[in-house]
Amino acid sequence: MTDTPVRAAPPASPAAALARYTTAPDPGPLLALNFGFARARALGTALELGVFTALARRPRGTEDLAAALGCDPRALGDLLAVLTEFGLLTGDGQGLTELSRAYLVEGEPTYLGDHFAEVLGQWDRWSALTPVTRSGDRSGDFGAPAARGRHPGLFGGGFPLAVRVAFAAVEALGLRRAGRVLDLACGGGEWGIALAAADPRAEVTAHDDPVLLGSARARAAEFGVADRFRFVSADFAAPPFADAGFDTVVLAHAGRFAGPTATARLVRECARQLRPGGTLLVADVMRPEPGRPALSRPMLGLSLLVNTADGAVLAAQDYRALMEDAGVTAKECVTRGLVTAQTGKRR
Question: Is 22 exposed, middle or buried, given 0-12, 13-18 or 19+ CB atoms closer than 10 A?
Fold first, then answer.
């Protein structure tokens, strides 16, 4: 960034000069955008220190909390004031709000702190956005199957958000006869769990990195369906599953990280494992149909630019084309929040 001289015609009067500034749009949104990194860092520091978990045990004053966390009271007080402003602490700064109690207390089933920490850990990658935008050279590893276990907060830590979407989509699609299910790259296991809940006879094979399978196993137990799960850690390039061995195959939240070429291969692999007439369920954040709002999908696309080697947000019609090429006839499609779920039948 360089200093740019101000070029403006001499005003007719001080009032005319002032009018340039008083009639300009409110810069508040730009200021908030520019300072957004600091807000995220404040939340990250609170999670790292264990502020919310400590206050969940009992309300504490600043001095008491500082002693418990090993912090400087004055510095911690400044942080608590910001967290109160965020709506994460009660007005006196000594207790949790409903929002923070739901998602920021470590050990709770709905804890999202690991997911937030994963996102904050991307800071160095985001600092490379300018050179990546100029050159197009990308080197992020999030799309590599071998990297999934190194990022459990990303691929499994969002379960509290993902599970509600999975259950809603499975219900909307009427998938009540899942049968033998393969959940490929299962992450937190939410889609296999939703299918098992919808079909009491379903038997689910959950496949992923061993680190993520541990989380999926715990979640399946939480929902009371673990007895109908088996967990398989296997090579992503050649999963060891027989041809036509499953009634339903799920590919969820893998395509956007892998990129178009690898996604085409994954869809073909899913089709290979489906029996004729079986159901392929692809779920991901997808580009909206023309004329529909994009919500935060463009920002997610930018994230894939800096965090993956080839990741991209594909459109539902792209997935339908990949299905057709793999011998799967596209069927129902529903969108819940940012996630679109597309089904197809194996020919």
Answer: exposed
Any domain includes 253? yes
Last residue of a domain, one of 111, 127, 158: 111
Q: How far is CA 83 from CA 39, 45, 69, 86, 130, in A?
A: 9, 11, 16, 5, 31
pTM beyond 0.85, yes or no: yes
Closest to 95 (Cα-Cα) out of 253, 314, 87: 87
C-alpha to C-alpha distance for 199 and 216, rounded to whole angstroms: 18
Range of the domain at 186: 145-346
**Cα–Cα–Cα angle for 155, 280, 194, nearest 5°?**
55
Terminal C-alpha separation, the chain: 57
Give the pLDDT means over successive 10-residue stretches in the chain (347 positions).
63 85 93 94 97 96 97 98 96 92 97 95 93 94 88 95 97 98 97 98 96 96 98 82 95 95 95 97 88 74 94 95 98 94 98
The answer to whether residue 187 sits within a structural domain is: yes
Question: Distance from CA of residue 286 to its chain's centroid?
Answer: 13
Residue type, 103: Y
User: Among the three residues 111, 129, 153, which one is the final residue of a domain in this structure?
Assistant: 111
How high is the pLDDT of residue 91? Answer: 87
Phi/psi class of residue 313: alpha, beta or left (left: φ > 0; alpha: ψ in -120 to 50)?
beta
How many domains, the chain? 2
